[in-house]
Amino acid sequence: MSQLSWSPTATLRKGLRIFLPISLALTIYLYFFPFFGKCAFPLPPVQHNAPADTGYHAFLETVKLHLSLPSVPVEETDPTSTPTVTPSRPLAPFRLLALGDPQLEGDTSIPTEYLGVFPHVKSLFRHLTFQTSHASLRWRLRQCFHEIVDIFFEDVFNLAESYRKRFDHWGNDYYLAHIYRTLHWWSRPTHVTVLGDLLGSQWVTDDEFYWRAHRFWNRVFKGGERVPDEVAMYPADEYDLTGYLSTSGPANDSSVWTKRIINVAGNHDIGYAGDINTNLTARFEDAFGKINYELRFELPLTNKSLTSTLFDALDNPLSDRLVPELRLVVLNDMNLDTPALSTELQDDTYSFINSVINTASAVQFKGHFTLVLTHVPLYKPDGVCVDSPLFTFHDHDGTLKEQNQLSLAASKGFLEGMLGMSGNKDAPGNGQGRRGIILNGHDHEGCDTWHYINQSFVEVERLVQSEDGEYEIERKQREWEVKRYKQAKKESLIGREDMPGVREVTVRSMMGEFGGNAGLLSVWFDEEEWEWKAEYATCPMGTQHLWWVVHFMDFFVILGAVLLAGAGVAGWFGVDVDRAVVRGLRRMVGGRKYRRRTGERSERQERLRGEGERHRDERGKSRDRGVLKDRTRSKSRRRLERRGVTPDHQLWSEAKKRLDYAKS
């Protein structure tokens, strides 16, 4: 039986030996990327004046959550003995997984949805059936030929692009879902937020909007829940607590709030100030929750002796300590700037901000922390972040069309109003305001900044001569400044008594082209200073191409393994899989002519095989035709050698001819 020159099963086996380890390694990395990236929520320091730990110890404590190691508090560890496990440090009671700008696209980006399937075929049919009017038959035929060309050069490509786009939407949904699901499992957050631009466009129909909302809740954030309307409260002097921040358990998280998604409205959800109307806001609130509300979480005191130090109007009126409380404010800042299309909705936003200010604790007290979640970042001069200040307006009515940041005036009111900071040392609380942090999205590149005002700046007035020769009074006043957070930290601007400030984190987008990023915010309470502290870290997964490559490779490796197993099973039943595959490939590739040549070659091989069998002797030993030929050549060579002719390989043909001629 003749042997094949190529074995498909052997090639498949060799390919699996190469790609199976690569596929396995990439899959492990993809599904455990937080582990390989050492992602973890910042860990509160052991000493109150030390910085938060965002490195090895924070990562180690997260690993121990998944290994179910017993916890040994640091203060209870005996330094003279050798502990059986590594001493555990308590996690922050509030850990927020912050995700920015998923921007789910939909049918508006699919050509067949707004053009139809093969629209030029329909136009061609109308031309051929005289449903359209033309000046002459020549023009009708000319238009028909145009439609035929467009069928091949537009309709076919649009159809292919539509299928590709639908497949891309499906993959992008699960790529974003992978980021949320994996990080939620690994980092164990207590709360989750999406900082605006949940969808890709505000100018979609209601059916398209709710279809994207369905994908949001059932694909990307499957298992998540919107914040109930009865929980999302409007600010009031007499309020009910939303809940308590747990300090018990290894992860001190709440099973209720770990499932809820705190959604912030973005410009691609409800539009900018010149676009927002009641219909856009109503459907957003219906699908994702209210656009303006607050949540209040109280932190129970673990040391009961500290209760006596709290402020009480009767028993302890001189204390400046309040019960530790975290106030989370969800704010729609899309219509803070003017002019706005709907002054009614803008007034609602202003009223909400005023209520936040009026119901906040006095700046002289300690113990309260304000976390503000918005979409559009505060004002920053050109060069601080990637997005520069940008404002455009509609031509038809002059309303605000687009903005990269809030205006300087809106940002100032934001800082001085909601957070109570001031450039005046004589202001209440020395102008330090309330402890807090601001998180937002919109700038897909992300940015981490520190807003501050220099109270030691001396305001001056001087006369300045203008170009026309007149003198004008120039006033240099204290102004809000902003720098990158790392730069401000390097210059020791943070924590100075004469420079009140607040940190603003613009979370980098979780979209694939921006690395699938996520933010990890930890907030904890320092009992010695009686103040809340916060620290922020990031965890990027990688671009969407990695997700696609890994899953495509996994698919083909699994397919190859199944085919190889099937070939092995078929071999047990006597099926020659290699020969069948090669024969099938030859039939597909060669056609009739190749099959005819293959048949002739097979017949010739069968004939030679039969002749070889006839050369078997009585003892059962086979005499191969090649051996007989070698023996014949040996006799001829010996005859040539007797005649003095050397049987060189190159001269053999010519010598053989001379020998034959001599015989004749």
TrEMBL record:
Keywords: Membrane, Transmembrane, Transmembrane helix. GO terms for cellular component: endoplasmic reticulum; membrane. Residues 596-648 are annotated as: Disordered. Residues 597-633 have a biased composition (Basic and acidic residues). GO terms for biological process: GPI anchor biosynthetic process. It comes from Neurospora crassa (strain ATCC 24698 / 74-OR23-1A / CBS 708.71 / DSM 1257 / FGSC 987). The keyword Membrane applies. This is Calcineurin-like phosphoesterase domain-containing protein. SUPFAM superfamilies: Metallo-dependent phosphatases. The chain crosses the membrane at residues 18-37, 546-573. It comes from the Eukaryota.
